């Protein structure tokens, strides 16, 4: 038997970001304050465990506002919604709580501002993602979606000197900049967003994975398949030199064959993943002999967001 110590490198930061924490708490508080059921348009955050846990407490997840009974309470997810969705909710006299991440709201404000100034806006993002649909809905006549550098050849603009790019907040930083470089080759006057659109948490989690991936035979990313930032972490791990990388929702999904011949396992989690799921993975790895855990810290996160105004205590009750 080899005397090699099996070990885990645990990325930090990982898991919940400030926007996810705020959105999940918004649904929990809505249930406490108003009682079940509380309707939620789309998944509040892209994590299976979170959604199932909230469903057990009385949250009802729907795809569109027309599935919500007239006059009922509905929470808008962290990914944001278009003005048309707000209008539909008003028409149905729904009581709304907007749990859109403030960093997504920032991109919405940028889209409205540059549309008012009559720019062509090139939105780097994934077709069909709720965040992209919400942002594009702010200025549909001005926004074109650009998914990858390969799409750049098909982009047309009215005035090449009046073009700006914005992005979905949960993308891979490297892939986004590849697309932006291709856009700038076609449109040399392309302007950058006023401030970075890719979320601080997305960037931090990618940096942490890059710092450890080359030392890992295997990187396990805890997250759901519809979580853009979690899927990106698998890609980043492989690009940064990990021997293999897999996305899992739960520890029970770990295939024993993945651990054959492995000495170092990297573990991280997407920005919508509660820490309890990571702990489950660490416990399972310990059962397989990976009992040594070394935390790889590349940043400390202290940012918090205030709750949606509909859930803040009124001045009279303080």
From TrEMBL:
Molecular functions (GO terms): 4-hydroxy-3-methylbut-2-enyl diphosphate reductase activity
UniProt KW Disulfide bond keyword: no
Active-site residues, as the UniProt record annotates them: 131
Cofactor: binding details: Binds 1 [4Fe-4S] cluster per subunit.
Binding-site list for isopentenyl diphosphate: 46, 79, 129, 227-229, 272
A Pfam short name: LYTB
Residues noted as binding dimethylallyl diphosphate in the record, renumbered to the chain: 46, 79, 129, 227-229, 272
Residues the entry annotates as binding [4Fe-4S] cluster: 17, 101, 199
E.C. number(s) listed in UniProt: 1.17.7.4
Pathways involved: Isoprenoid biosynthesis; isopentenyl diphosphate biosynthesis via DXP pathway; isopentenyl diphosphate from 1-deoxy-D-xylulose 5-phosphate: step 6/6; Isoprenoid biosynthesis; dimethylallyl diphosphate biosynthesis; dimethylallyl diphosphate from (2E)-4-hydroxy-3-methylbutenyl diphosphate: step 1/1
Highest taxon of source: Bacteria
Names of required cofactors: [4Fe-4S] cluster
Name of the protein in question: 4-hydroxy-3-methylbut-2-enyl diphosphate reductase
Organism: Pseudonocardia oceani
């Amino acid at each position: 038997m080899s005397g090699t110590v099996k070990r885990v490198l645990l990325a930090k930061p990982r898991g919940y970001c400030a926007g996810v924490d705020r959105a999940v708490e918004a649904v929990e508080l809505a249930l406490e304050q108003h009682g079940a059921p509380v309707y939620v348009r789309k998944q509040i955050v892209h994590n299976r465990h979170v959604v199932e846990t909230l469903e057990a407490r009385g949250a009802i997840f729907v795809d569109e506002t027309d599935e919500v009974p007239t006059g009922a309470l509905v929470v808008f997810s962290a990914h944001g919604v278009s003005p048309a969705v707000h209008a539909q909710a008003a028409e149905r006299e729904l009581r709304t709580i907007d749990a859109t991440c403030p960093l997504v709201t920032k991109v919405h404000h940028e889209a409205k501002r540059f549309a008012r100034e009559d720019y062509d806006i090139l939105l780097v993002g994934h077709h069909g993602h709720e965040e992209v649909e919400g942002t594009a809905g702010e200025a549909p006549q001005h926004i074109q979606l650009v998914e990858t550098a390969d799409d750049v050849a098909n982009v047309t603009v009215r005035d090449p000197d009046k073009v700006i790019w914005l992005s979905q907040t949960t993308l891979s930083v490297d892939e986004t900049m590849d697309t932006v470089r291709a856009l700038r080759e076609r449109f040399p006057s392309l302007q950058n967003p006023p401030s970075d659109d890719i979320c601080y948490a997305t960037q931090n989690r990618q940096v942490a994975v890059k710092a450890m991936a080359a030392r890992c035979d295997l990187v396990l990313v805890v997250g759901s398949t519809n979580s853009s930032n979690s899927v990106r972490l698998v890609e980043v791990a492989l690009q940064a030199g990990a021997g293999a990388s897999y996305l899992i929702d739960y520890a029970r999904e770990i295939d024993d064959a993945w651990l054959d011949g492995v000495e170092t396992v990297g573990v991280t989690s997407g920005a919508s993943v509660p820490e309890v799921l990571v702990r489950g993975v660490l416990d399972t790895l310990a059962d397989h002999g990976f009992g040594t855990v070394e935390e790889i810290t590349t940043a400390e996160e202290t940012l918090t967001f205030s709750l949606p105004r509909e859930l803040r205590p009124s001045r009279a009750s303080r």
